[in-house]
Amino acid sequence: RMFFLYRKNYYGGNWASFSFSGLLSWIKENQQKTDGSDEWDDWRKLILENEEAISLSKKDKTIQHVEDFCFGDQDSAEGVEEAGALPKLPVFGTAGAEGVAQESEEAHSAVESTEPESPEPEKATGTEPASAREGSDAEITSENASSHSAALGESAGELGQTEAAPPETSAQEPKKITYSQIVREGRRFNIDLVSKLLYSRGLLIDLLIKSNVSRYAEFKNVTQILAFREGKVEQVPCSRADVFNSRQLAMVEKRMLMKFLTFCLDYEQHPDEYQDHENGTFAEFLRTRKLTPSLQHFILHSIAMVSETDCSTLEGLQATKKFLQCLGRYGNTPFLFPLYGQGEIPQCFCRLCAVFGGIYCLRHPVQCLVVDKESGRCKAIVDHFGQRISAKYFIVEDSYLSESVCTNVCYRQISRAVLITDQSVLNTGSEQQVSILTVPPVDLGKPAVCVVELCSSTMTCMKGTYLVHLTCPSTKTAREDLEPVVQKLFNLNTEKETENEELEKPRVLWAVYFNMRDSSGIDRNSYDRLPANVYVCSGPDSALGNDCAVKQAETIFQEMFPTEEFCPPAPNPEDIIYDEDEIAPEESGLSNSPETKPETSTEEMSSGGSAAVEKADNEE
């Protein structure tokens, strides 16, 4: 049996999604400087003479430099009593740490517990039962069957079309969104801490289909691949139809682009065309193909999405081929996005785990690992209640490891920004667009910034707004890394009088910047004193896809159970026959999902940011 212990009061760790008020609480928590010194400290008395303890970190230190801003007047938000007395954030130029830190926890929880006036179906992240959403999903998907939303089928060829929200066709001028509206409609936001997309032929999609976990989720196609060139945002033609319908490219350029993309699909069969350039960069190789500067820009930054200086020719060809192979499986772009946010994915796996007896505990910190001195293996953990929990295997998220264990570890950082805006970065006539844009660096050697823009039909923001995620590997603080890109794409001017050029840009209503630890790629041998049966999993990496997380999960599973299949197809819940002596009737269905919160301290929750243990058969 698997036990998942979380020290936080929310699901998913750094893979989590939050409502707007939930995100404000998260911001406040990470801006406060606490060391967890109030934790129970008598756990050392439980360690026997033939045992030693490896203490774990009391505070999650994976998030740093959190700064939030409200761009505009917030006076109207003060009267929103039904949403709770939220803190008044400063206007642009002053970080919002002080305003958020002054707000009590009761005020934030009051917002999350307040139902919006609108009767439209919604989801509060991590708290709504799956059964409660079935009706709303049916209501949503029956509106219009011609949208780009997709529900993954049980086989790779099956695709169900669904509609998350009808397109907005109002001819009136868009209404000005105020801070009070964002507060009032806060539960319509599902804001991810990590921004990722799913490649339609990536490892995660294949795993979702193989394991039947895809039945618990719905997806929407990314509808636009964009490029930022010469100070303007342009749409990138990537499929054959897009190329020949494009008005941006001359006929000669269309032929050149199609010829190169065709070559990339089977470049392994033509080594003579690239082997002389294997030691060079992909950007240099593109210049030898006699492509125009605009085509080189599209391929490098929007199709291969690789660095101009650090990516080799082979890596660039592989990235281009991966992009092209994913086209057409579920739409005209290679990417899917899960409705209600990236935080849905770990919850989907958790729902299946709960069906087969997985137990998840929130607000359950772990004090230490208990190691047998003779065997050198970990035999138990001690939690903050003073309980010893024995197990055969232990999986620990990297943030739990203390500095004494991580003396030789050098972490990378990810710079993140989340914006709420009033318009799309590229208006195309449809307001329900999901877009990805890569902004190349101004200075060579610095990382490009990946921008993912989500519309309201993804169920991640309220109508009339867009949720924009910016991500890049860190060189400085998140604000220093990402604010120049924000200034290029968006209007940050809070004054009424602005230049015409700024008026054409989307206006930022609210923003937060933060740095997140990237512990992917850390070798196990870098950790000191870790027993052989303790496995370390990392948090999110900076890549756009999820391949790193899937490979890591499979590697850990195969080390523990070398003869077992990783995530085999699960039977349908209605076909499962339970032994009444071993499993209580109420544990036999989806009612025991992560969103169902029992009255006891044990709660179902999603994977990520937890310490997981597989309980031994002889445990009490």
From TrEMBL:
Residues 98-177, 571-620 are annotated as: Disordered. It comes from the Eukaryota. Residues 576-585 have a biased composition (Acidic residues). The keyword Transferase applies. Keywords: Cytoplasm, GTPase activation, Transferase. GO terms for biological process: intracellular protein transport; small GTPase-mediated signal transduction; vesicle-mediated transport. GO terms for cellular component: cytosol; nucleus; Rab-protein geranylgeranyltransferase complex. GO terms for molecular function: GDP-dissociation inhibitor activity; GTPase activator activity; transferase activity. Residues 414-542 form the RAE1/2 domain. The keyword Cell wall biogenesis/degradation does not apply. Its main location: cytoplasm. Residues 139-149 have a biased composition (Polar residues). It is found in: Cytoplasm, Cytosol. Belongs to the Rab GDI family. PANTHER family: CHM, RAB ESCORT PROTEIN 1, RAB GDP-DISSOCIATION INHIBITOR. This is RAE1 geranylgeranyltransferase.
